[in-house]
Amino acid sequence: MNDKRLHILRVTEKLLKEHGLHGLSMSKIVQAAGVSTGTIYRYFKDKHDLITAIHFESASQLALAICQDLDGPADDRQKLFTMIDNLIDYNERYPERYLTKAALDLVSQQRTHCDMERIRALFAPLTRYIEGGREKGLFKPLPTDILVSLCLGPIEWNYHLRKESFCTLSNEELLLIKQACWEAMLAPEANPGS
Amino acid sequence: MNDKRLHILRVTEKLLKEHGLHGLSMSKIVQAAGVSTGTIYRYFKDKHDLITAIHFESASQLALAICQDLDGPADDRQKLFTMIDNLIDYNERYPERYLTKAALDLVSQQRTHCDMERIRALFAPLTRYIEGGREKGLFKPLPTDILVSLCLGPIEWNYHLRKESFCTLSNEELLLIKQACWEAMLAPEANPGS
Amino acid sequence: MNDKRLHILRVTEKLLKEHGLHGLSMSKIVQAAGVSTGTIYRYFKDKHDLITAIHFESASQLALAICQDLDGPADDRQKLFTMIDNLIDYNERYPERYLTKAALDLVSQQRTHCDMERIRALFAPLTRYIEGGREKGLFKPLPTDILVSLCLGPIEWNYHLRKESFCTLSNEELLLIKQACWEAMLAPEANPGS
Amino acid sequence: MNDKRLHILRVTEKLLKEHGLHGLSMSKIVQAAGVSTGTIYRYFKDKHDLITAIHFESASQLALAICQDLDGPADDRQKLFTMIDNLIDYNERYPERYLTKAALDLVSQQRTHCDMERIRALFAPLTRYIEGGREKGLFKPLPTDILVSLCLGPIEWNYHLRKESFCTLSNEELLLIKQACWEAMLAPEANPGS
DNA sequence: GATGAATGAGTTTTCATTCAT
DNA sequence: CATGAATGAAAACTCATTCAT
Which residues in chain B have their CB less than 8 angstroms from residue A123's CB? Predict the structure, then answer.
């Protein structure tokens, strides 16, 4: 059944968050998941396959979380604010995400092109948003990656450094931050003050 | 001599960058460094100690690189531009740094308080810069960590995702980015356009 | 199966007797037992655990050997003679026992309280015999340990020093010895000659 | 100087008593003795040589301790009582002796014939005592080793089992024990009561 | 399909000993 | 004579993977 596959994935993800890739062994998974050694190899070719699957799941979930409610009718500024809220929400709910991501990065460097494409597809709403804004002349004339870094990078980096200070910020402070991220992307002409 | 300790550190760092923590074994270090097994254990208590030492070195180097030429007479905007240039420089010269950092984070979560203090001290020029600006009313009234994330996060995150596109950017594009990072920190009243 | 655990124990014991704890290595056990490295670690947590298990087995066997046929209807003097015969028999059959015991003592000093209790229980017939005799006024009014040392100590010490001369003694000589051990325990009033 | 050799011997002996042979490493000796690695190898050919030297020292000390004041004018019974007192004294002062002895036995099985002869010579007063008594018809017509086991074995075995109960015994109890050891050796005709 | 005992190559670590200074 | 850094063979132990049941 696919239930078992999912169960193993969930348990492994939890162990990764707790102990990191270094410190993850198949026997720990076996113990924690309550299945037998052989069973894991029925659902995953080998350890690498399991890790890669988790990487894919993790990236997918992040994409889904960020892009939630993005294609609605709101204006562009509001859309970014929504994404940032989504991102903060996601990070607060899964506080160890970045550790996991970092661990996975090291293993799955050779992740299949196919997987990359599927993940990229899940981020499509974000890409569309950025590219749309740039074409309208609203955002700076920079590569998409760079624009994404300008508007979401500060939040991501902050969580990466594990300064979990966002949840302690007041609404005014959060607004200041969101406004800063928004303005960072704006084209000079769209941002007359600078 | 301390030469040998340093030599082992350098070789290990190189191996870490090439194969990740995952593919690092003491015997590989022994071979690559041209020393005997026992020698490593003369200078480092065990593998963990060696990894921790590299982490410390790595963080120190980043701090030194970023804060280079920061205490000169330049104006605040120019100082940030210098730091960003330093950061880009450093990342271009050590393109695998983030892989290493990510790997190290997973191992050295329990790094000693003492080491943390020493690293923090190396970042002091950056901290002083941020706090000075905030007190002058130049920067937004936000915690230091957040301000650092706003001005350096975009670059860091971009490198973290290994989109090594900065070196392909034109000078105009780089200027746009730096300006965006600068404005992200500025207090609303200091940034009349927003 | 528990067969394998027992097999490893037996093989290890043999190696201990041949080379002492000093010359015992896991790889020698692996070779001698014809199992793989990992298998040993399935049945014993680590080397110390294996040694401790052997200690326990060894003490159990000694207790069983000594106390054999002790609870029968024989008179008290005959009972001691039986025990001494058992002890000599056991030592002749396992001539290296003391070497093993000495080796184990050094390692298992911190053997679990639980194990101690189980071993003590196996010696219960001996203890009962001694205490019964003392209460009857037949044996000297001394602690149980001391009485045991008086009646079995000479034989034990002799084997400990590896003067394996008992087997070369005549029946008359053996009888003299046994009689001496018996009289050593007797209360003065029960032993009118002294 | 011979001072250094003696110092190393003493320190090693102490370590042996504390941790057993298993757990004794040259580096521990180096640390505890405050000399350099090379120095040990100036005074002892190798580890085995060092252990053997300690064995010899240890056996010598025991012999000296037991045979102290043995050649005086006292009667035979009093002489045994003196030896037993000496033995108890020695064991109380060096409570870990047997552990050390056991450890050494395992290593020095192949101790040189020459050393054996020298140790045997140190026990000569004891041997003379036993053999003299036997020839007089006072002791049982048994081999010397056996007679030694009969009169000193109980005490030795008791200490071997680390029941350090002798120091808690009253003088009457001690007298009972000594008397028992004495009688154990006596020839039947010399011990009319049995 | 599921199990988990068995495998053994590979890893980390120890430690007696040597030798250049 | 003394030192202690360096050595490297050997030890203890791990763990991804297989396969008979």
Answer: none
A45-74 exposure pattern, b = at least 16 Cβ within 10 A, e = fewer: eebeebbbbbbbbbbbebbebbbbebeeee
pLDDT at A66 over 60: yes
Q: What is the dihedral of CA B112, B117, B122, B125, to 10 degrees?
A: 150
- Within 10 A of A35 (CB to CB), how many other CB atoms are there? 17
- C89-93, C95-99, D146-150: the lowest-pLDDT one: C95-99
Cα–Cα distance measured from residue C18 to residue C98, given in angstroms and rounded to the nearest whole number = 12
Q: Out of B152-166, C100-114, D53-67, which region has the weakest mean confidence (pLDDT)?
A: C100-114
Statement: residue D3 has pLDDT above 80: yes
What is the architecture of the domain spanning B53-190? Answer: Orthogonal Bundle (1.10)
D139 three-state secondary structure? strand
CB contact under 8 A, D183 and C184: yes
State pTM to two decimals: 0.82
Q: Which residues contact D60 (CB under 8 A, 6 or more apart)?
A: D118, D119, D122
Which residues in range 20-49 of chain D are in contact with strand E, contact meaning CB within 7 A of any of its atoms? 24-27, 37-38, 41, 46-48
pLDDT band at A85 (very low <50, low <70, confident <90, very high): very high
In chain A, % helix, strand, coil (3-state, to 5) comes to 75, 0, 25
- Supply the pLDDT for residue A107: 55
Helices then strands (H, E): number in chain D?
10, 0
**pLDDT (0 to 100) of residue A67:** 92
| B22 to A20: CB separation less than 8 angstroms, yes or no | no
Confidence of residue C162 (pLDDT cuts 50, 70, 90): low
The SS3 call for residue D173 is helix
What residue type is assigned to position A74 of the chain?
Answer: A
**C1-44: which CATH topology?**
Arc Repressor Mutant, subunit A (1.10.10)
pLDDT tens figures, A25-49: 999 999 999 999 999 999 999 998 9
Q: What confidence tier does C86 reach under pLDDT thresholds 50, 70, 90?
A: very high
CA A10 to chain centre: 17
Count Cβ atoms below 10 Å from residue C132 Cβ, excluding itself. Answer: 13
3-state secondary structure of C167: helix
Query: What are the tens digits of pLDDT across the range A159-174?
Result: 877 666 678 899 999 9
Fold of D47-190: Tetracycline Repressor; domain 2 (1.10.357)
Q: What does the buried/exposed string (b/e) look like for C48-74 if buried means 16 or more CB atoms within 10 Å of the residue's CB?
A: eebbbbbbbbbbbebbebbbbebeeee
Q: CATH 1.10.10.60 in chain A: give the residue spans.
A: 1-44
Q: Is C142 near strand E, with its CB below 7 A from some atom of it?
A: no
The architecture in CATH of the region C56-190 reads: Orthogonal Bundle (1.10)
Of the candidates C120, C98, C119, the one whose C-alpha atom is nearest the C-alpha of residue C164 is: C98
| D145: Cβ contacts below 8 Å, ≥ 6 apart | C158, C161, C163, C165
| Residue A117: pLDDT band with limits 50, 70, 90 | confident
The residue type at D134? R
Residues of chain D with CATH 1.10.357.10: 47-190
Nucleotides of F under 7 A from a protein CB: 1-20
Strands (E), chain B: none
Q: Which range (B29-33, B164-168, C80-84) has the least confidence?
A: B164-168
For B77, list phi and psi in degrees, rounded to 5. Answer: -65, -45
Distance between first and last Cα of chain A: 59
pLDDT (0 to 100) of residue B43: 95
Query: How far is C185 from D8, CA to CA, in rounded Å?
Result: 44
CA distance B1 to chain A (A): 32
